[in-house]
């Protein structure tokens, strides 16, 4: 088991807080991490739901949900348009 640091921005930050550490399985992708967070239910399910437009970054680089995660990575979730 490894961990990643997940950060939330804009409206997601208001719903979920600034950041959290999440345990991941080896070989897990960014999309699978999103699904894991959605499965928690509550605010995570509402904010990260599959019908919502959510952008992702991995180690401060925009990434597709197929990107593989590594231990210690920084993952960011944010809406497509964020304000200054």
From TrEMBL:
Q: Which Pfam families match?
A: ThiS (PF02597)
Give the superkingdom in one word: Bacteria
Q: Gene3D superfamilies per the record?
A: 3.10.20.30
Name the keywords, alphabetized.
Nucleotide-binding
Q: Does the keyword DNA-binding apply?
A: no
Kindly give the InterPro entries that the UniProt entry links to this protein: Beta-grasp_dom_sf, MOCS2A, Mopterin_synth/thiamin_S_b, ThiS/MoaD-like
> Which family, according to the similarity comment?
Belongs to the MoaD family.
**What is the protein name stated in its UniProt record?**
Molybdopterin synthase sulfur carrier subunit
| Annotated source species | Pseudaquabacterium terrae
Q: What lineage does the source organism belong to? A: Bacteria, Pseudomonadati, Pseudomonadota, Betaproteobacteria, Burkholderiales
């Amino acid at each position: 088991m490894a961990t990643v640091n997940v950060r939330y921005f804009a409206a997601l930050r208001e719903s979920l807080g600034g950041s959290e550490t999440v345990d991941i399985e080896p070989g897990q992708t960014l999309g699978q991490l999103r699904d894991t967070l959605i499965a928690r239910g509550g605010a995570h399910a509402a904010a990260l739901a599959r019908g919502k437009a959510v952008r992702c970054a991995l180690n401060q680089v925009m990434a597709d949900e197929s990107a593989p995660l590594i231990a210690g990575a920084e993952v960011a979730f944010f809406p497509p348009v964020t304000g200054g």
